[in-house]
Amino acid sequence: MSYSVDEFRCSVCGAPIDVSPYSVVVVCGYCGWSSSVESAGLKPLVVPPEDRGFLRAWLEKIVRSKAGKIATVRDVRFLMVPVWVVYVNASTRYNGYRTETRSRRVGTGKYARIQTYDVYVPVKGVIDEKLAIAVYGRRFESTFGIGTVKSSVLDRVRSAVELEPSLTKGWDVLGSEFSQEEVLEAAKTRVADEHRRRLESMTTKLYDCYTTADVAGARLILYPVLEARYESGGKSYRMIIDGVKGSTRVLKAELPITTSARIIRGLAAAAVVFAAALLASLLQPLIGTEIPEELQLAMTVAPPAIAGFAGFLGSMMATAVQRISKTVEEIDIRVLG
Ligand SMILES: [Zn+2]
Question: Which of 3, 210, 4, 185 is nearest to 93 (CA)?
Answer without folding.
Answer: 210
